[in-house]
Amino acid sequence: MKIATWNVNSLKVRLPHLLGWLEAYSPDVMCLQETKLPDERFPVMVMKEAGYEAVWSGQNTYNGVAILSRNALSNVSMGIPGFADEQKRVLAATVGTIRIVCIYVPNGQDPGSDKFSYKLAWLEALTAYVRAELALYPKLVLLGDFNIAPEDRDVHDPAALTGQILVSPPERDAFKKLIQLGFNDSFRIFTQEPGQYSWWDYRMNAFRRNMGLRIDHILVSREVKSMASGCMIDRKARAQQQPSDHAPVMLYLASD
DNA sequence: ATGGCGGCTCGCAGCCGA
Known about the structure:
14 strands; DNA-binding; six-stranded mixed β-sheet
């Protein structure tokens, strides 16, 4: 079984990229972030023709998440229960025996800003929600755009970015609290090297110079970790024409 | 890395992302 995530930065613009990637890699489950589409414009028929059932939670201009699956999706849940939020950032569903929680964590703009406070409050609410989900569904995969680079080896220039957004200690502490619920960062089960990124700024030729950050993650619960056989970041997708600034990340499970 | 690019909007300049 293959479970992937990709911040597409506009599903409208990136639909051809997505369809090509689904064709090339045939993930069983694909989680999307930043669809930037209101629900009535989600391309459900195109997904069906590509062989995927879909659930989605979107809005105009910003945010928006979706889960595509070759097999049936059930027990669909939108948002963080009990946490009022206009922004469409969370979507959960069950596929077979696996619970999928697809997230788009707020960017946070700058430490000290209102958006940063929102990011931390959002992460605290998410952590409580995921703790409860894990109790219900021991086989849980929490994946998406976390907008946090967990360690210095996930950052091209840790010294220059110390304390800044995506790497600041409060954000990394929030990430650790999620991990401590009983997760593993699946990419780091298999790969220890630095310089492995999932996002590169459109500016400054950042991709060509590999000035990136690893901020898109697939966290696996203990019961899923025992099935995991690999995790890859497809940086080739970032080298395409008119790419998303994020690369897809995919988890391989030996069984389900 | 004070910007740079790219996507968005009842656009024509400004906001936001990361």
